[in-house]
Amino acid sequence: MAGLHWADYLIFAFFLLVSLAIGVYHAFSGNKQRTTQEFIMANRKLKVLPTVLSLVVSYQSAIMILGNPAEVYLYGTQQWFGSLIGYALAILLAERLLVPWIFPLQLTSIHE
């Protein structure tokens, strides 16, 4: 098995440096959270796009990223489209039924 090319190491180092720079910037910037509620829940004033991106990223997992291509390879794209329809319906039902019921309770997580 061949090793990584120098360009691969360069790209890897670039992404590590960008992540480090973002962390250092936010550590030293003046916009700090003062309470745990501000830190965890963004004071419940987060706009739609950051909320959606946060939910999508937290929903993705290594199992899904590695498993979906294997499922499509084994069973074809029809299975993937069926899963996609199921995911869309689950998200719509949760958004229309669960969120209006849970949000007024001011809970931090569904497990409270």
TrEMBL record:
Pfam families tied to this protein: SSF
Top-level taxon of origin: Eukaryota
GO cellular component terms given for this protein: plasma membrane
GO biological process, alphabetically ordered: sodium ion transport
Transmembrane segments: 6-28, 48-67, 79-99
Subcellular location: Cell membrane
Principal location listed in the UniProt entry: membrane
GO molecular-function terms, A-Z: symporter activity
Membrane topology: Multi-pass membrane protein
UniProt keyword terms in alphabetical order: Cell membrane, Ion transport, Membrane, Sodium, Sodium transport, Transmembrane, Transmembrane helix, Transport
Family per similarity comment: Belongs to the sodium:solute symporter (SSF) (TC 2.A.21) family.
Name recorded for this polypeptide: Sodium-dependent multivitamin transporter
